[in-house]
Specification:
The chain has helices at 44-53, 55-59, 72-88, 137-150, 168-176; strands spanning 28-30, 34-38, 92-98, 107-115, 121-128, 158-163, 180-191, 194-204. With 216 residues, it is α+β, with helices and mostly antiparallel strands.
């Protein structure tokens, strides 16, 4: 876990220090095997290569995108918007690379739709290169990301993830991370030519007390 850029113990206390405001995570995270870099236009070619290698692998699970979604100029512009959104605290997307091969993107994970106020919640999403499935790399990345966004610098109260019932691998990742199934959403997203059912899983930050007020 990264050293938090605020000077008080892990977990936002019931009475945060005067002037404290939850912020955004670090833009570069490191795990034992991975580099996790936030979106920037400089990563456009590497992210396109990642997607291109995995077209068939992702087709069953990814929402339907516009035909030009992964063209170079469109991708650079989108990553530029995400770079600004990262600073604004609305989406924190990270592109994963092995530490010994930083030029090759092998995965992505994101905390999006961040809502503060009385909700303090966000959506979690992730994808991994087909050649890396079964290596524990996504669980490693998500463990670190959750530590970051549940830690005192960011202090989210809740993360939610939606998974197709037949995506057994993704379900197992969430369950190993402590997510609990909260519900079922019929015909939730348009994926691979049809509206697909999803299950909802959520993880509550254990460092938040039941009566702890969110920072304003």
């Amino acid at each position: 876990m990264s050293v938090p850029p605020v000077d008080f113990p892990a977990g936002v206390p019931a009475d945060p220090p005067a002037g404290f405001r939850p912020g955004s995570p670090l833009k570069l995270l490191r795990t034992g095997r991975l580099l996790m870099r936030s979106s920037t236009p400089a990563l456009a070619e590497a992210t396109i290569a990642f997607q291109s290698r995995n077209l068939a692998h992702f087709a069953r699970w990814d929402p339907t995108r516009p035909a030009d979604h992964w063209e170079l100029d469109v991708t650079r512009a989108r990553l530029g918007r995400e770079e600004k959104a990262f600073d604004a605290g609305t989406i924190w997307r990270y592109w994963l690379s092995l530490a010994e091969a930083p030029e090759r993107v092998i995965g992505v994970c994101a905390v999006s739709d961040v809502v503060r106020g009385v909700f303090q919640s966000a959506m979690l999403g992730y994808s991994l290169d087909e050649g890396c499935v079964g290596t524990g790399l996504m669980q490693e990345a998500l463990t670190h990301l959750i530590d970051e966004v549940f830690g005192p610098a960011v202090s989210l109260h809740r993360l939610q993830a939606s998974v197709r019932p037949e995506n057994a691998r993704s379900r197992r990742v969430l369950e190993r991370l402590g997510f609990r199934r909260e519900g079922f959403s019929p015909r939730y997203l348009f994926i691979d030519g049809a509206w697909r059912d999803h299950e909802t899983f959520a993880l509550i930050n254990p460092q938040w007390g039941e009566t702890q007020r969110p920072a304003t």
